Backbone:
């Protein structure tokens, strides 16, 4: 997948870039969670598979192979659905399909030729089915829980969430046991956990932000010529398809960072971010070009960033083994 975004995928730089990106995943702050019998490793694998199939779907679309494109779109929906069964944040990858649907509609509005309308209808239909396949990954486990706790057994033994307007066991458990909700985690006692999450939040946001066009006169969804201010894998080295892939992959990653900051137990962003490829590409590019990360006027060398990743992974392993935050 890393080589797919490069203008020269078989070049030495491209191969080195792919190797560094993969190595960064091994050194990910998720650390122990990627090697223990936990959901993170399975989620990362399936979410990466979904992103890869989705990227191949875009490539097939550019190559004018609609049949292969539609098959790959469906396959990516299945992979994302399986990823969502392991971790609920996998549902964010559905934003890729929403992006495609909105873009297809806007394309038809700007050029309403019969042939293009039919092609867009076909595209939207398959993307919609792909989104449904992905949503099944979220719906099916909750359906099983509803059958067990709300349908079977005596009425007096039913769980309290069964009477909710949307009887979701996931939403109830997160709210009742984990106190997850908008700004609920914003307390003074949790300030150290926000500090632990800050580096990863910045990496996610900065790597996503650099993919978006800076041409204010063109829509981000409709512009075909607006260029990003920079690209995660280096200016002048990303292919046109690669820039398209990067920009789309940035959307679920950016929303993950926003939700982690506002609604989740913020420290878990260090492990649930492991299944999103864009930020690995961004760091790999910085390492290869020997650039620093600039934050609020401060220049941070890449060896400091990688050192933080390794240190955090080791720290997290010890704390998690003792049943302490920042798990």
Residues:
């Amino acid at each position: 997948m890393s080589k797919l975004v490069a203008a020269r995928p078989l070049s030495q730089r491209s191969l080195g870039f792919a190797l560094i990106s993969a190595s960064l995943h091994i050194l990910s702050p998720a650390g122990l969670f990627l090697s223990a019998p936990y959901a993170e490793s399975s989620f990362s694998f399936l979410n990466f598979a979904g992103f890869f199939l989705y990227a191949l779907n875009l490539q097939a679309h550019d190559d004018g192979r609609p049949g292969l494109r539609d098959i790959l779109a469906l396959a990516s929906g299945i992979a994302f659905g399986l990823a969502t069964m392991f971790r609920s944040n996998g549902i964010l990858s559905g934003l890729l399909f929403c992006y495609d649907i909105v873009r297809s509609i806007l394309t038809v509005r700007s050029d309403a030729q019969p042939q293009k309308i039919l092609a867009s209808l076909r595209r939207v239909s398959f993307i919609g089915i792909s989104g449904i396949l992905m949503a099944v990954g979220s719906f099916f486990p909750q359906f099983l829980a509803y059958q067990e706790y709300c349908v079977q057994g005596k009425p007096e033994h039913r769980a309290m969430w069964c009477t909710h307007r949307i009887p979701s066991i996931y939403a109830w458990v997160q709210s009742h046991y984990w106190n997850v909700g908008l700004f609920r985690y914003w307390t003074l006692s949790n300030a150290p956990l926000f500090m632990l999450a800050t580096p990863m939040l910045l990496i996610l946001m900065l790597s996503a932000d650099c993919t978006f066009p800076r041409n204010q006169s063109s829509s981000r969804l409709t512009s075909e010529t607006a260029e990003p201010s920079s690209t995660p894998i280096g200016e002048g080295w990303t292919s046109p398809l690669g820039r398209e892939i990067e920009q789309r992959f940035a959307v679920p990653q950016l929303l993950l960072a926003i939700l982690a900051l506002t609604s989740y137990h913020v420290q878990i962003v260090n492990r649930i971010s492991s299944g999103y490829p864009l930020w690995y590409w961004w760091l790999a590019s910085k390492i290869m070009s020997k650039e620093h990360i600039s934050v609020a006027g401060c220049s941070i060398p890449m060896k400091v960033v990688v050192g933080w990743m390794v240190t955090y992974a080791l720290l997290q392993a010890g704390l998690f083994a003792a049943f302490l935050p920042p798990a």
